[in-house]
């Protein structure tokens, strides 16, 4: 069927519709003077029929605009918001929305709202989400402030229960790995300190001295050894009791300070310390528990 015939059928249908609803004239309006006004789609169709134009109907439709993000919701919480399998607090939680996490609204908004966020679908308590025009505005601001060129990448979505478990496991493994690396680094540094200190075994003890070659007392010896590793220590054993981090004897590693009443040494491991003993014995090695331990301090 060609376009002229289509237009003719449309006009016949339209004319029938107009005839079915005749205009009613008021008593003061002469019936013979009454004429249906030529407006709207009737005028468009008439012009098109006479000029044989192609009709582009979409050009004459009134647009129905909807905000691009009006079907979105955002978590309005300080910590997190549970997504539950059913609209009740007794149901199982299947995911979590963290502050400002985004979701798409799947159902009507009541006391509970059904949403989809990432891989999680379920119900959230409506008091804790931003919706409607406020959500539209928030979404636009987030897109505008995002460094990503893709608008959808401006939003962060929920984490499912399974995703949370996997993340926590990965974080625990990463933390354990870092602790192991730190322990290994500390052990290496501590051993380097011990190795350096042991070079001076046999050198003299001198009261008030700080020279590793010409003589030092216990605190002067320790102070000078650690200075070679960029660690500044106070001059007296009493002040050294407050430095670093306290650890137990069972936790002690090479390079820790072991302090006694008026004395200090560097723990070597294997239950020994290297220290400036006294004027008779000079710099040497003693059992770490040769007398009562006041505190053990870790500086590395």
What does this molecule look like?
It is a single chain. The protein folds into three domains: 58 residues, no CATH class; 86 residues, SH3 Domains (SH3 type barrels, Roll); 111 residues, endopeptidase domain like (from Nostoc punctiforme) (endopeptidase fold (from Nostoc punctiforme), Alpha-Beta Complex). The chain is 32% helix and 22% strand. The chain contains six helices and 16 strands. It has a six-stranded antiparallel beta sheet with strand order 11-16-12-13-14-15. A hairpin with an 8-residue loop joins strand 2 and strand 3. The protein is rod-shaped, with a radius of gyration of 42 Å. The relative contact order is 0.08. The N terminus is likely disordered. InterPro entries: NLP_P60_dom, Papain-like_cys_pep_sf, Peptidase_C40, SH3-like_bac-type. GO terms for molecular function: cysteine-type peptidase activity. It holds the Pfam family NLPC_P60. Belongs to the peptidase C40 family.
